């Protein structure tokens, strides 16, 4: 995933340091997402429409670890790319595909969390909508990762020569147009969706706080912390990579060295470790507690253990709450 072509490769010690970081990302990324998958398999109640997006993120992140991080890790141990041209194109394609699936799923999840709480005016089939969202994330990713295989840009060995991605530094008009579109539709748009939806969600939570200040204050702070953590981790993991890619594309030749390209690449790969921690493992409750006290059709656990508060909030949005706590949309 390194966004420049190799110029002056890393030293032996440099490759070793990169291999250590990739090894840690591989271990913890695979382990964290494996825990998420085990939880979903063990607790049937977790298999609800909203959590299908979380499962989709974990699957795509685990596939990145298996298909990408492992090969890059092995290549850095050897100090060079260990695959051939076909392996390089395959590596660039599948890792770009899985990475974009994760990014789009995060954006869709932010919209789902926002719309579930604030746009409850229409009745919808949750499972069907979630399946469409999951399928849509994969189709959208394929839409932007297949073209380099067909001639609109290309995949190749890049950076320090131990991984493959889109040829960011290609000067052809086709590659430049592809990179601009990829940057806008696969990075900028997801960021804008997340910031907009989570910002509106925080505003909605503050409205709950105005109804019951004492009861909702801790919930508000918890949601604020989770939202800020989510957005910051997203930006830290992916914005540096996007910036380096643009510099490699539009900057003067040699402005991005292999060393400077390695750090954004590692940060992007580290998202496979951060995502399950933020969305699943940071929850201090055990799965049984979550199932007993959390309505998964609302946003996470904001209103757990506070039935009256959640009902008042939903009514303030014009949503009918039935006696069995179901919600009419």
Automatic annotation (TrEMBL):
SUPFAM superfamilies: Family A G protein-coupled receptor-like. Its main location: membrane. This is G-protein coupled receptors family 1 profile domain-containing protein. The keyword RNA-binding does not apply. Gene3D superfamilies: Rhodopsin 7-helix transmembrane proteins. Belongs to the G-protein coupled receptor 1 family. Opsin subfamily. It is a multi-pass membrane protein. It is found in: Membrane. GO terms for molecular function: G protein-coupled receptor activity; photoreceptor activity. GO terms for cellular component: membrane. CDD domains: 7tmA_tmt_opsin. Pfam families: 7tm_1. Residues 32-279 form the G-protein coupled receptors family 1 profile domain. The chain crosses the membrane at residues 20-41, 53-75, 90-109, 130-150, 177-202, 223-250. InterPro entries: GPCR_opsins, GPCR_Rhodpsn, GPCR_Rhodpsn_7TM, Opsin, Peropsin, Retinal_BS. Keywords: Chromophore, Disulfide bond, G-protein coupled receptor, Glycoprotein, Membrane, Photoreceptor protein, Receptor, Retinal protein, Sensory transduction, Transducer, Transmembrane, Transmembrane helix. One of its GO terms (biological process) is light absorption. PROSITE patterns: G_PROTEIN_RECEP_F1_1, G_PROTEIN_RECEP_F1_2, OPSIN.
């Amino acid at each position: 995933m390194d966004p420049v072509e190799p110029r002056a490769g890393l030293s032996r010690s440099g490759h070793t340091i990169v291999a250590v970081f990739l090894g840690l990302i591989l271990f913890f990324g695979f382990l964290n997402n494996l825990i998420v998958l085990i939880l979903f398999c063990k607790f049937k109640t977790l298999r609800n429409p909203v959590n299908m997006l979380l499962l989709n993120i974990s699957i795509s992140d685990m596939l990145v670890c298996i298909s990408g991080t492992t090969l890059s890790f092995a290549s850095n141990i050897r100090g060079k790319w260990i695959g051939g041209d076909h392996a390089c194109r395959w590596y660039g394609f599948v890792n770009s595909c899985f990475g974009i699936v994760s990014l789009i799923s995060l954006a869709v999840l932010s919209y789902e969390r926002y719309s579930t709480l604030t746009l409850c005016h229409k009745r919808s089939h949750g499972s069907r909508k979630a399946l469409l969202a999951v399928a849509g994330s994969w189709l959208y990713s394929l839409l932007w990762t297949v073209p380099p295989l067909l001639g609109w840009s290309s995949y190749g060995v890049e950076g320090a020569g131990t991984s493959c991605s889109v040829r960011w530094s290609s000067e052809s008009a086709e590659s430049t147009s592809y990179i601009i579109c990829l940057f806008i539709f696969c990075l900028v748009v997801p960021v804008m969706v997340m910031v907009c939806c989570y910002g509106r969600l925080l505003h909605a939570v503050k409205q709950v706080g105005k109804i019951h200040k004492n009861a909702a204050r801790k919930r508000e702070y918890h949601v604020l912390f989770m939202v800020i953590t989510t957005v910051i981790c997203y930006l830290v993991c992916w914005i540096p990579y996007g910036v380096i890619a643009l510099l490699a594309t539009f900057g003067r030749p040699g402005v991005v060295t292999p060393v400077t390209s390695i750090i954004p690449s590692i940060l992007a790969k580290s998202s496979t470790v951060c995502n399950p921690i933020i969305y699943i493992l940071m929850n201090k409750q055990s799965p049984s507690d979550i199932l007993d006290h959390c309505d998964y059709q609302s946003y996470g656990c904001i209103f757990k253990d506070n039935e009256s508060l959640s009902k008042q909030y939903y009514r303030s949005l014009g949503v009918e709450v039935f006696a069995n706590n179901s919600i009419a949309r």
